[in-house]
From TrEMBL, chains A, B, C:
One of its GO terms (molecular function) is hydrolase activity. Signal peptide: none annotated. Residues 166-376 form the Amidohydrolase-related domain. It comes from the Bacteria. It holds the Pfam family Amidohydro_2. It comes from Streptacidiphilus fuscans. This is Amidohydrolase family protein.
């Protein structure tokens, strides 16, 4: 694996990162409005695309990505966008991804376009990043795709078959039940009769976007049986979601019910409930947490703070790095830089004067925990 | 507008502040106990007025206000109170307000006294502050005042008329539904029949303090129709309120229901849910947030932290400055100083070595966002 | 009282600490797994005891305790455990406790063993620590012990008698209702008939661990009558507890109902809801909060942050120091060091250049508030 030199941020070089949750990027040029729409979790059309840059993420892009385009840090937005057009999307993407320093990326294939533009295939993405690529499968999407042709009686089996088939190519599964219902769902596994009745209701309503609480629960329990780590969106996201219903603490009874199965549960994003996620990772052997999306969005001062808060209670072998980069390769670049920046601030306070320990802890969080959790040493690339 | 020199705190001078939410101050001398009772959000009589100063706000007053009285920073409380008496309330008030550096203040006229002493009129307040004054009207107070003489059948119309009349002089409205019910109210607009029935119940119980959930909702929806920005108390306050029922995330369904109207919603205070407020401002175009009251109370180390947490996700054009100063001009002075202190710490981390960007962002949050949101350039003074 | 020299952490020497909530320690040698099991709030058997050290608490032990064993800070875990065996448990315990610098410890006697090994008696513990020892009585345990032999009709009286008898030796009471139910309990005092009926149900189910919501409430109200300060576990703990149901804000209606009695309520631990606890201490005269367990677990960078967040709103006379040390004397040592470290970071920001005020505030939080609240000057040792 090729080594990149990093950000000169004072983080011991512990080898390439493993991005345990990201998406692919768009291949083609983006207009100013499309670009801006990918710089925010809001899905509302920005009234003024320029205004979107006035955020911690906007500053982070100007800070860490402008130099990759041979511009000074904090170059004006106009200069940034002009230089991006000049270099072309392919070159910009290659630079951003290469310089992120990924050894491997776990790509959630549940989204196939961004701002209306198709995403690169995982293999194309991995090629540009110079990184191994593994797949994360989104379980609600598997179920929605498997539904046409199924009857109420056969829905559970049909979906289970589809899920296990998809899981054969994947190193992990992912659920967006936070969006489809909220994390305050009934933790009990539904009975076959309940599932059958619910499938009937779902099919009668025409299928499509799966929001039936009983089917969402059934799907989670089916996913747990696969043994693959199950990633769960928690915390902030787009306006579809209600924030306090995405508090991972609401999952506690589900965490308890799932514990005997031993399937790892990976809490994604978590902000502003990252301390709650950290405690779950502390208390329950099968719970892990990451700070992806969050560090990407919060920018330089925020990333330091949020990582430190996570590491108050989360054991260091339970925290995973990710970017949740999606659409724009700038997001992967910023996510990697924010993580290194945050670690470079935290490590000297946590292990002052001890570079060996600092490097060891950085390596656990930045790559080893993911390699171990997802079995990446043995995983098919 | 006269410029004041600020606090030597390293904040680029971006012009005077616009305090988007404050109250007026008492004109007369205050005894030690009355003064102490205004240094806390608790409304319980302090057993020992001196003890009230042992708080982050108490330290902030001694740090930033003592020098305005020609005393060293952190002068003893006795010295502070003695010097205050010596100078007299009028001179102290003038010094505190002038040195806060306000260009304009939006004064909530819903409270007319503090610690049993009448507040100055908004015009008197503005004169002492050397600032333009605009009015914020508290909707529950309008409704309570309009109620005598109304029947159940006429209540909705009568209140609507009173609200629209009051709104003609105002640049914004404000709701204290967090105190009167909690933010976990039913977001749907009540039907005329429901409102009529509820008005009957309210009138039958003698009117007075409005806490009927249906009427509070009706009032919010009436306020939304005015088009004026609607400020909502969220987060901490006095012991009347239940903190977890003041989490602004509980407003999410109301925010969604109100979105088609386009009326701006301004989340006030927010602490300790300021990250939740920041996400709402990030996700929804019509949501704004401020950090007033919070920065005032949390003092120097806290203000830095809380502002930084807010700016993790809140777009810079969605955050507003305020003090929520009330009764004591020290609170306005501390609110302005804490804000500058917090910005002066955050800006160099967010845009290191870039004074132009730092000044631009400071200006957005400190004044321009409010000027734009409330139309202050065109507003009658 | 013998003075210890502290940690060279720049905290003004304000005299010995009063640890307002801790447990005793085990007297005998501990194997590697038993030691590790006491380094985490998780009660699950660690798969790899060495991995447990990879946490902020693990680093804190290596940072602050290794030097007490004549090892360099951050010595490897193997070296630490070997040196610990070499010195023997008695000597290690003596060193850790003495060097913590406690004048007095309030020992919760509700737990009598740790990792299956008996704890030292409070007197033995105090002897090793060179500190006065006072007792905190756990009310649920009193009730469980008093139950055998009681009838449904006599349960309330029998438990009340037992509680008042136990309280005669104690300076405070403690409730773990957060574990037994959650803090979202009905705040009203149950009627005698309700309590009788509930006692009948409890006795019919064989007694034992008390989780009946009505009896838990009855017990709390009985405890309030004693007049002794009532400590309440809030916030994080072991996996028995559901985090969001331990938010102290859920106690608000109970706090209001208890206010006329004047009995002090002391919120323990609180993390990640320490800001909520701080507001309750700010708003209600009879509410206090501590940061024990939390500072112990969060390590050096975290302790600074959490203490600062608590002091944003909590009046300085309402915050108490504790370690919640349990089983391992390292936890007492780390708790004391983390507190001094956190104060040494916060004080210069809060009262820059004012050593007298810094010492006064440190003394309030570190000892005086506890002396006053628990009447320790007059308490029998």
């Amino acid at each position: 694996m090729q080594r990149q030199d990093r950000d000169g941020q004072g983080v011991p070089d512990f080898g390439g990162l493993v991005d345990q949750h990201c998406h692919s990027v768009v291949a083609s040029e983006l207009g100013e409005t499309a670009f801006a729409s990918l710089l925010t979790e809001s899905d509302r059309q920005p009234a003024d695309p320029h205004a979107v840059w006035d955020s911690s993420l906007g500053l982070a892009v100007r800070r860490w990505c402008a130099p990759e385009l041979d511009l000074p840090a904090f170059a004006p937005v106009e200069d940034y966008l002009e230089r991006r057009r000049e270099l072309g999307a392919a070159e910009v993407t290659r630079r951003m991804l290469r310089r992120s320093g990924f050894d491997a990326c776990l790509v959630d294939t549940g989204l196939t376009e961004a701002a209306g533009v198709p995403l690169l295939s995982p293999d194309e993405f991995g090629g540009l990043a110079g990184a191994d690529v593994h797949e994360i499968v989104r379980i609600e999407r598997i179920a929605e795709r498997a539904t046409p042709g199924l009857t109420a009686d056969g829905w559970a089996d049909g979906v289970s078959t589809a899920l296990h088939r998809a899981a054969r190519h994947a190193v992990g599964l992912k659920s967006v039940v936070a969006y489809r219902h909220g994390l305050d769902f009934d933790p009990a596994r539904p009975s076959p009769a309940e599932t059958r009745r619910a499938a009937g209701e779902y099919l009668a309503s025409g299928g499509g976007r799966l929001t039936h609480p009983v089917l969402l629960r059934h799907l989670l329990w089916t996913a747990l049986e696969s043994g693959l780590p199950l990633q769960l969106h928690t915390g902030f996201g787009d306006p579809d979601l209600t924030l306090h219903r995405s508090d991972p603490s609401l999952l506690t009874d589900f965490v308890r019910a799932a514990e005997p199965l031993g399937t790892p549960l990976v809490l994604l994003h978590c902000w502003p409930y990252h301390r709650q996620a950290a405690w779950l990772a502390h208390a329950f052997p099968h719970v892990f947490c990451d700070v992806g999306l969050t560090l990407t969005h919060t920018g330089a001062p925020g990333a330091r703070q949020v990582l430190a808060e996570t590491l108050e209670l989360a054991p260091f072998r339970k925290v995973l790095f990710s970017t949740d980069g999606y659409g724009l390769p700038e997001l992967h670049r910023v996510g990697a830089a924010a993580f290194r920046h945050a670690l470079a601030a935290w490590l000297p306070e946590a292990v002052p004067g001890n570079a060996v320990e600092a490097a060891r802890i950085a390596s656990l969080i930045g790559r080893e925990n993911a390699v171990r959790l997802y079995g990446l040493a043995d995983a098919p690339v």
